[in-house]
Design goal:
Number of strands: 0
Number of helices: 1
Largest sheet: none
Helix content: over 70%
Structural class: mainly alpha
Strand content: under 5%
Order of helices and strands: H
Radius of gyration: 22 Å
Length: 50
C-alpha cells in the first residue's frame, strides 16, 4: 500500500472514530444534564426541609 492509500485508509478510520467520539460526547452531555437536574431537585427538597 502506498502512502496515498494509507492516508486514505487512515482518514476513513479517523472520520469513523470522530463520529463515535461525537456521539459519546453527546450521550455524556445528556447524562450530565440529567444528573445536574437531579441535584437541583434534591437541593430544592433539602431546602424545603429547613
Amino acid at each position: 500500500m502506498d502512502n496515498y492509500e494509507q492516508l486514505k485508509a487512515d482518514n476513513k478510520w479517523l472520520k469513523k472514530r470522530n463520529e463515535w467520539l461525537e456521539q459519546a460526547n453527546c450521550d455524556l452531555n445528556k447524562e450530565i444534564e440529567a444528573a445536574y437536574e437531579r441535584i437541583h431537585q434534591l437541593t430544592i427538597k433539602i431546602e424545603e426541609l429547613f
